[in-house]
From TrEMBL:
Any one annotated GO CC term: plasma membrane
TM segment ranges: 7-27, 47-68, 89-110, 122-145, 152-174, 219-237, 249-265, 271-292, 312-335
Keyword Transmembrane: yes
Domain of life: Bacteria
Keywords: Cell membrane, Membrane, Transmembrane, Transmembrane helix
Record-given protein name: Permease
UniProt-annotated location(s): Cell membrane
């Protein structure tokens, strides 16, 4: 029964790919005259840009997640993690420095690591730290701001400190209690995996690709929903109101944090968008945009609600928002 269901899903997936390729290569949409308002064409353009920008990193994330599922045992995670909950926070932040993963891709990776036994607060440190601290984002920020040391060191210094602070606060609030959503099929899958473990040991790469494909299609629907809502906000939100608040040292960071949440940019590209606001907004508000957005935006909020319990996600959102906003205000007073 399970094999026939898997085969059916594979056939549907291949059919959809075939339809997409046919439309892409053989249909000229320019010849189809439809009276569509320009605002909705803009929604379509922004939606596609968000999805196309995010999909490569989603693929990276689900494949890394599948590798963890297949090759990393719970015993290995427990062996290499420090036993002290507080002592495990800084190594997690340092791990984020070497992971070239954005905010879209990090969610399946963290979810899988928590399922494998990683403490919740350590996963949170990776969740908020890795999308900013990784080397790809360092390079993009350097080039976007022409090596401006205030922006460069401010962004990554704040991100490193704040991911540790946020992880510590989540440890205090949830005490590492399980906050993942486990579906009935996942629980059944765990039992099946235990029964089929000898077979999977013989063909780990096949199991890896099966896990990656299942997780990609599962996560894809939340990416699409988040991207569509983000494209609506980007099109219909009155940006002139935001610009009027740009030079206020208290309001402008809050405005840019809200802007980062709505725009849902990939962390590898957000520095170039932030640089375009350089003449309008304060340095502190630009840092707020580049620190808050990779930690929390509209599209990854959908994924968080899909894979974590509602109470955890709401508390996580509140903690990240308050900590980042307070840190930016302090940074403006002490450094700028």
């Amino acid at each position: 029964m399970r094999k026939s269901s898997s085969l059916f899903k594979d056939l549907i997936g291949l059919a959809l790919i075939g339809v997409f390729l046919y439309l892409f290569f053989f249909i000229d949409f320019k010849e189809i005259s439809l009276d569509i308002p320009s605002s909705w064409l803009n929604v379509n353009t922004i939606f596609l840009s968000i999805v196309i920008e995010a999909i490569p990193f989603i693929l990276l994330g689900v494949f890394a997640s599948a590798l963890i599922q297949t090759f990393v045992s719970e015993e290995k995670i427990k062996k290499y993690l420090p036993k002290n909950p507080i002592g495990a926070i800084i190594p997690a932040a340092l791990l984020g420095v070497i992971l070239p993963i954005c905010e879209c891709a990090i969610i399946p990776v963290v979810r899988r690591l928590i399922k494998k036994g990683m403490p919740l607060h350590v996963g949170v440190v990776l969740l908020v730290g890795a999308p900013i601290l990784n080397p790809v984002v360092v390079a993009s920020t350097y080039f976007a701001f022409n090596g401006d040391p205030t922006i460069l060191y401010g962004r990554f210094g704040l991100a490193f400190i704040l991911c540790i602070v946020i992880g510590f606060l989540m440890l205090l609030l949830f005490d590492n209690k399980n906050q993942l959503r486990w579906t009935k099929s996942e629980l059944q899958g765990r039992q099946d995996m235990e029964l089929e473990q000898p077979a999977l040991q013989q063909n780990k790469w096949k199991a890896t690709f099966y896990h990656a494909s299942d997780e990609f299609f599962d996560m894809g629907k939340y990416l699409i929903a988040g991207a569509f809502i983000a494209s609506l906000f980007q099109t219909f939100l009155d940006r002139s109101v935001l610009m009027a608040l740009g030079q206020n040292e208290v309001l402008s960071p809050a405005v840019m944090m809200a802007f980062a949440f709505v725009l849902s940019l990939c962390s590898e590209a957000d520095a170039f968008v932030a640089a375009s606001f350089g003449s309008t907004f304060t340095v502190g508000s630009l840092l707020a945009f580049m620190v808050y957005g990779p930690m929390l935006d509209l599209k990854n909020t959908f994924m968080l609600f899909a894979y974590f319990r509602t109470k955890f996600v709401l508390v996580f959102m509140a903690v990240v928002t308050i900590v980042v906003f307070a840190a930016i205000l302090i940074f403006q007073q002490l450094v700028l």
